[in-house]
Amino acid sequence: MPLAIGTCRYIVRFFKLKRSPHRAYVKVALASTVGPHDGDNNTMQEVKDTARALVRIGYDGRVHKTFRGHQARERFENEVRVLRHLEARGCDFVPRLLEAEPVILKIITTNCGIMIEHISEERMKEIFLELESYGVRHDDAFMRNITYRKTDGRLCVIDFELATLLEPPPTDPLSTPAVAP
């Protein structure tokens, strides 16, 4: 049956991975669109629609997130700041910020894979602890913010609107050279 212009049909396949290269048992769902893509918002897959954000994946795979609701501007600015910080430090398991549109509180990022359905508490803590080594505490460290990137089998972290940039660790006064009087 042919699809009308501007409509999409989603095919969802479930499969369970025995073990990813990063020691986590994960169960993931893959969604793909079938049908015409005319480039408008109607062809985007809606991933999240809450009072705080609308998240869609475009026909090109990019993630479009529009902030709304309470403190939308602050959350938008924080996510942009954190993503730029992580990119500057070479963190490769988070989305890359492609565009930021402050007038409409929208960001466009790369896609970090698909949502996972299961992960051990221990592995989840490891991932968020690894993120802290890049100077960021997530502050919403739950499974819903971890994705599985199929291209390299990597678990990734998303959704940084509540994250905190950590201060650089204080230097040990004993390890710094003394200043001559």
Structural class comes to: alpha+beta
Number of strands: 12
CA distance, first residue to last residue: 85 Å
Give the mean pLDDT: 80
How much of the residues is beta strand, in percent? 25-35%
Number of helices: 2
Number of domains: 1
C-alpha geometry: globular
Helix content: 10-25%
Rg over CA atoms, rounded to whole Å, is: 19 Å
Segments where pLDDT lies below 50 for 5+ residues? 1-20, 22-41
Helix and strand pattern: EEEEEHEEEHEEEE
> What's the main sheet like?
5 strands, antiparallel
Strand order of the largest sheet: 3-4-5-7-6
Please tell me about this protein's structure.
This protein is of the alpha+beta class and 181 residues long. The chain has one domain. 16% of the residues lie in helices and 30% in strands. The protein has two helices and twelve strands. It has helices at residues 72-88, 121-132; strands at 9-16, 27-34, 45-49, 53-57, 63-67, 97-101, 106-109, 114-115, 136-137, 146-149, 154-157, 164-165. It has a five-stranded antiparallel β-sheet with strand order 3-4-5-7-6, covered by helices on one side. A three-stranded antiparallel β-sheet has the order 8-10-11, with helices on one face. Strands 1-2 form a two-stranded antiparallel ribbon. A hairpin with a 5-residue loop joins β4 and β5 (63-67). The longest helix is centred in the middle third of the chain and has 17 residues, at 72-88. The protein is globular, with a radius of gyration of 19 Å.
